[in-house]
Design brief:
381 residues, homotetramer, paralog of FGE (formylglycine-generating enzyme), alpha+beta, Four Helix Bundle (Hemerythrin (Met), subunit A), three-stranded antiparallel beta sheet, globular
């Protein structure tokens, strides 16, 4: 079943890049955006490095420079035309085949549990990259002068519509257990379930819609320093921000770039592509606030049906290790386990999250200035 | 009694700058350092703007450009030679006298409670600036080629010595009330006392000493990327850091700049002038971690005698609003109340904190790269 | 004959990019490097904008965003994956065909002389871009981890070898006429021939070879501040320069990237890819100096056979207008005529200059830090 | 007589700083501005280092850190409050007295000619710094919010008025000798007199006035990209330039900061504080151009009475070595002789140039963006 999961995941990544032109695979229009080529290679490099090179004695490294190019996020990946896109597809196929072959001989392997764990981790990382890939593709295409479409219909960023006015769910005071309990897969940062006391609160029964956020824009929010955290206001000025990423005013009406091309802003669509500063300022302006990540997870425990979300929801929690956090030792721990400073946690998954990838304990995290992910807002009061 | 507190505080600020030369008042050797002149003026501007201009109808603004120069932290304050230092002392005296005069007529004033609150707030802000002033003076003098002394003896950064090996205090699991309860003065960010559940932990019975931190340095910490958070390692490289601020190797032995001039590093002295990245890396290297701010405050409730500290102690909590946080409305709220993004909380006060200024709920907060405050480390396991 | 020149030039540009992969057309590994795609489009845009749109009433603009993308040097051209490379080849063909068609109807056109002049100018600009294109291709391929070859043999940067030791030619004192005299094509900046008095001098009878420059490197030049102009030394430090662009020490011997891939440095090959600071420092170190551009041109008048060069030779003349310089009025003048500040003049053409493109009055000019062109050194004493 | 010149120069430097407050000596409001304290110290360091330390065996270095602080232009000199201003005056006095004492014993010294040359050079350097000091003082005071006066009347930047409309002088074609001929003092960069052939030209009989430049401003020059060199336009945008340095529009009329405080712009006063880009754009807009430095010097030979100027006049010559240029060997050559890249030459002296300091061959030179010197425009056609 893991092999099937592996093969399905590998295939799905390639489905996602089908609509691209060769040129789209190599440009990097912002330092924090990775090229599609890099995503394709990086997710293969993981299996090559941590499974094939580690456990298959006769395995020959595919190309020694690939580690330098594809091991880490690389702010200069947009400088590299070589290896070509075609070469990277060959690399993917090579790795997938080698791993499938290895799988057949795996039964007798004494390291079986460890190998399975690594393959499972790699599959989850590749799923994670599928959402990043989609966000990066949207950014790359959205930067082009002609705003090309990614697909013609059923894009992940266009389907969801709010069906009714926003309501509130009451979550009672109490001790809640937060974090992943030891069953099923989870990333290291979710582990170490622990108790958190929460006072009673009310949480919105869905994410904010475009219409609701438009009121904020039209109230002059992007020109009113008082509504923003100091660094948020700096961000507004520096970027001459007038709204969420991809929003433009075209002849007096709001449009945005979607994976289906430019469209009029859908009033009942989920607000997407706001950063933490926008989320925080909006919540305060509404007389509410953002949930902490513990509040978010507790709300899921009490009212799960209302917490599935079309967007990742910014929380008011900094990304910090849970009390019992321990990163794995060695290079794998180095690869997956380092906490990163200055990020805020997002919860809830999104329409772009691959099916089956998300869990209620999932901790997404981003620098507070980032808008390019499918990120939105849920209110708490 | 408030007037006495006011007058004493005003006087003490001036005592602190007595040892300076005129030139020391105007230079700004780093963007985040404020000039002593600015501190002197800013703390006067508060009383002029929020008390005298607000409540004394006949009060004439001392100089209309002072708001532009002294209302806010100003990254370019080191460009201004004028007004002169002498002019700022005159401004201080003018404001102090006008306020003392106003005080005499205050009894009949209907706004008395509000006025009292503002004066009280101003006094606490000035006390806060006294510690910042001392840290900035140390930085300014410490940057000079000749490393002049600030005073000859009894400097706040030289007295304390650890008397014994570090031990651990047990703090039991339980629900603790964190934050300032409504009695006595507190800044807005401490208010909104709330319950926090904590698992049992052990916390060190004193702050880390220089000797203890030297082991970390001598183990090669500043050359080992694996020990650091990614941004911490970036900081090490960018600054070619080899130890805490003010530490130098002179002919094979460690010396540091103190307010009494260059000295050999005192092994039993409190480790000072480390940033969050250094504190976090050291704690992890010791197999321990930093406390959260709730853990710190709970420990104070259980074992207060052990929690008084010669240094501000970095916690592993981001500086974020308490659940019930509300900033005051209007310009005063704007002035005092804005949360700031990306900072980490420090707890515990320091030898440079003015007497009577600190409370257990006190939340100091700094960007994680900052070393210039009197900041150190306490471990938790 | 002009049409033939036009068609041959258009075709040659496309021959030059034949060896590239699609991906190589879109990356921009340094701000001053243009993508091959941009070169292909820009040289077409010239004919579309200044000939077809200006003189063919029924001509429909190919795509209105192409002016925004391709009119000017664009520091962000590496962000654009669209239009695709294929689309740009179609654009080229469209423009070439439209111009050839227009040519047939040209005889009766009253603006014939002006139209001919513009086509001629466009052809010379495209030729100029052919050399830039080659330099940019070399830079792009040279930045790749695997250093792919551009061609297998007979690359423009590998053929020339010095046949003998450097000698000196005497150029007598006198009044020389410098600049282009009104016959044949020249760019605006060469026009305005004028007399210059020159004292007698001796000029080297060929460009410097790699072997000669290696002595400078091996004498420790890149570690000796005294040999450099202040800004040159800043450049050395900032770039950790150890030699000309593309030079590397591989296991103790010097290699360089050429259009045929990595090679051992050919001792008798022409020194290439040095910037002005390197040229100036080398000349001074040899007890000589660089020629001024007037000296260079006078030397060509006296000893033409010795002045043909495999590399553009840095002169010690700033790029400034000749006394009688007038730029053309209107948008064409704006396009071609603006002097640029802070550049130094290079003379002599190179092995990469298209045949027939160069004249003795030709003024190439570059910022003094640039190494990516085929630039070398000739000495004067 | 040299001693007298020395003593007079030393005294005059101190007269120039009399009007300053202590604080004015230490601030550095722009990276290229030196603090008055630095000027005072640097000009003393020259005599200490190149005369006293070099030739007086028993001389004790005043303070070993002064070389680090005062040898070179120092972009961070505004960080140093110590040594105090008072200490620097003591240093000046110490050096002056030691040199005067040394002078008395000089007759028997075998190195007399060399020593005399060094003292003479030092005196000329200190004179040069007197003008720089005045420009830096103007900049420092002009940056203060309250725009304090330097002096009450007879400031060097306010006296001169044009008496009549601008006319033109004809300078005939011919061979002119440019550069300093070996008699009297000159800096190295003026030496190496050489012949230059010039075509006939007409040169304005005085510098441009404020009124003449105002026409350029009011014609919309600072909003019209077409009038500027590309880098000039970048400068306009980056600095939001609306006119010369110190010019402001106050309630609809133009005022400027002078050493006597804010004043209405004097129509017949000399245009000052423009940079090369402004000078070059203005000249082109007038259908004229800037002279080359050879043209300027030739004009002085033909019509000296018309070439004395209240401002340094930007030429269209890059600052490059004369053909026969040789810098002196050793540290003194290193100190005085290095050519600097990217600068343009200014000719003519100014009202701020100390009496007797200037010669017709004098080559001032500045980066083309600089406005802070007393720099203006003379036209040529």
């Amino acid at each position: 079943m893991l092999l099937k999961h592996f093969l399905k995941t590998r295939a799905w990544t390639e489905v996602l890049v089908k609509p691209l032109e060769t040129e789209d695979f190599v440009v990097q229009p912002a330092e924090e955006i990775m090229t599609p080529k890099w995503h394709l290679a990086h997710t293969s490099w993981f299996f090559e490095n941590f499974v094939l090179k580690a456990y298959v004695p006769e395995y020959q490294e595919y190309n020694p420079v690939y580690t330098a190019l594809f091991e880490r996020f690389e702010a200069r990946s947009g400088l590299y035309s070589r290896p070509t896109v075609k070469a990277i597809f060959q690399y993917r196929q090579h790795v997938s085949e080698a791993l499938a072959l290895f799988w057949k001989q795996l039964n007798e392997n004494k390291a079986l549990p460890d190998i399975m764990k690594r393959i499972e981790l790699g599959v989850h990382l590749e799923e994670q990259h599928q959402e990043l890939l989609l966000a990066d593709i949207k950014f790359i295409l959205g930067q082009q002068f002609l705003r090309p479409k990614y697909i013609d219909k059923d894009a992940p960023d266009t389907g969801w519509l709010a069906e009714q006015a926003m309501g509130w769910n009451e979550i009672p005071e109490g001790l809640y257990t937060i974090g992943h309990e030891p069953e099923g897969f989870a990333f290291d940062n979710e582990k170490g379930a622990h108790k958190v006391f929460l006072a009673a609160f009310e949480i919105a029964d869905r994410a904010i819609t475009n219409k609701e956020y438009l009121e904020f824009i039209e109230a002059g929010a992007y020109a009113d320093q008082h509504l923003w955290l100091p660094e948020g206001w700096d961000w507004v000025l520096r970027n001459k921000a007038i709204g969420p990423l991809y929003w433009e005013q075209v002849e007096g009406s709001w449009q945005y770039y979607t994976l289906e091309g430019m469209m009029h802003v859908e009033p009942d669509g989920p607000l997407m592509h706001v950063n933490y500063f926008e989320a925080e300022a909006f919540a305060r302006w509404k007389g509410a606030r953002l949930p902490t990540e513990a509040e978010w997870e507790a709300a899921f425990q009490v009212k799960p049906d209302y917490m599935y979300s079309p967007v990742w929801e910014w929380t008011n929690s900094a990304y910090l290790p849970y009390p019992g956090y321990r990163s794995q030792a060695g290079p794998l721990g180095e690869f997956t386990g380092k906490m990163k400073n200055g990020r805020m946690v997002l919860r809830g998954g999104s329409l772009a999250t691959p099916e089956g990838h998300w869990r209620p304990s999932y901790r997404n995290h981003l620098l507070p200035v980032r808008q390019a992910q499918f990120s939105g807002i849920r209110l708490l009061r």
